[in-house]
């Protein structure tokens, strides 16, 4: 006797449920999140973390939390536009990128990358994670 038959399930119904569950879970995206925090100097700051927990973009310091949240919203708005990303090379030869707003202001900077290919992956990660990322306010 099959255990789920006691609950009025048929074997076919169970298999259909498993298939449905599998189709739903493949559609679920685990997205990144913005961490908003307060620095020791009193300024607010955000970091965008990918779903694997790695920081992929960091902000400048902001004097107020509302300005910091506006910075997050600007990242969400601008992250899907390729023209907003500017790749640069640091004096040590490592590559990084800045994300700029429509007025040209830097709203976030990446970590340093050893190769152009890694930097492109970082940009792609911001483009995928930022638009729908939740905000985790760690200042309260």
User: What's the overall average pLDDT, rounded?
Assistant: 87
Give the C-alpha Rg.
21 Å
Order of helices and strands: HEEEHEEEHE
DSSP strand content:
25-35%
Q: Uncertain segments of ≥5 residues (pLDDT<50)?
A: 1-9, 24-28
Helicity range:
25-40%
Sheet with most strands: 4 strands, mixed
Span from first to last CA? 55 Å
Give the tally of β-strands.
7
What's the number of helices?
3
Structural class: alpha+beta
Strand order of the largest sheet: 3-2-1-7
Description of the molecule:
The protein has helices spanning 11-27, 65-78, 116-129, and strands at residues 33-38, 44-49, 55-58, 85-89, 95-100, 106-109, 134-137. Residues 1-9 and 24-28 have low confidence and may be disordered. The protein is built from three helices and seven strands. The chain is an alpha+beta fold. The strands form two sheets. It has a four-stranded mixed beta sheet, with helices on one face. Strands 4-5-6 form a three-stranded antiparallel beta sheet, with helices on one face.
Annotation keywords:
140 residues; disordered N terminus; four-stranded mixed beta sheet; globular; three-stranded antiparallel beta sheet; 3 helices; alpha+beta
């Amino acid at each position: 006797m099959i255990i789920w038959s006691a609950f009025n399930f048929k074997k076919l119904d169970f298999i259909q449920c498993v298939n449905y569950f599998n189709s739903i879970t493949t559609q679920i995206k685990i997205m990144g999140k913005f961490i908003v925090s307060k620095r020791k100097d009193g300024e607010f700051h955000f970091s965008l973390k990918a779903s694997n927990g790695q920081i992929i973009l960091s902000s400048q310091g902001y004097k107020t939390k509302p300005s910091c949240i506006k910075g997050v919203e600007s990242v969400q708005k601008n992250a899907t536009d390729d023209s907003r990303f500017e790749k640069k090379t640091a004096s040590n030869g490592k590559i990084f990128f800045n994300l700029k707003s429509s007025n040209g202001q830097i709203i976030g900077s990446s970590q340093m990358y050893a190769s152009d290919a890694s930097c492109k992956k970082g940009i792609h990660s911001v483009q995928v994670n930022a638009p729908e990322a939740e905000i985790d306010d760690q200042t309260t």
